[in-house]
Amino acid sequence: xxxxxxxxxxxxxxxxxxxxxxxxxxxxxxxxxxxxxxxxxxxxxxxxxxxxxxxxxxxxxxxxxxxxxxxxxxxxxxxxxxxxxxxxxxxxxxxxxxxxxxxxxxxxxxxxxxxxxxxxxxxxxxxxxxxx
Length: 132
Hints:
The relative contact order is 0.20. The radius of gyration is 16 Å and the shape is globular. Helix 1 (2-15) packs parallel to helix 6. By secondary structure, it is mainly alpha-helical. The model has no long low-confidence stretch (mean pLDDT 94). It has helices at 2-15, 28-31, 33-39, 41-44, 60-73, 90-112, 120-129; strands at 49-54, 79-84. It starts with a helix and ends with a helix.
């Protein structure tokens, strides 16, 4: 559930918020990405945030990994937060997590004083690829 929503968060933050975003699943992020979050806090302290998308149906070991990972990296980022899913079906829980990401992406655009709608660079890419 969280992985599907995380992919949506990433694309919405990229496109609407006009900001870089990345996502990874647990436990995979514990094998390599955690090093990048903690090795250079000077790079991440002011410009990165970590959001953990959690679902009550996640395996207990994944929930533990989420908590421990968040505790380990929260010293390196200004925000290390959790968004928990809501709903009875998997689809409802994916949608609940996704809509929060959509709202976050628009808020990021507002904070950066950019219009979330135009995607000029994508239009330029399409023109160039079409030979125009």
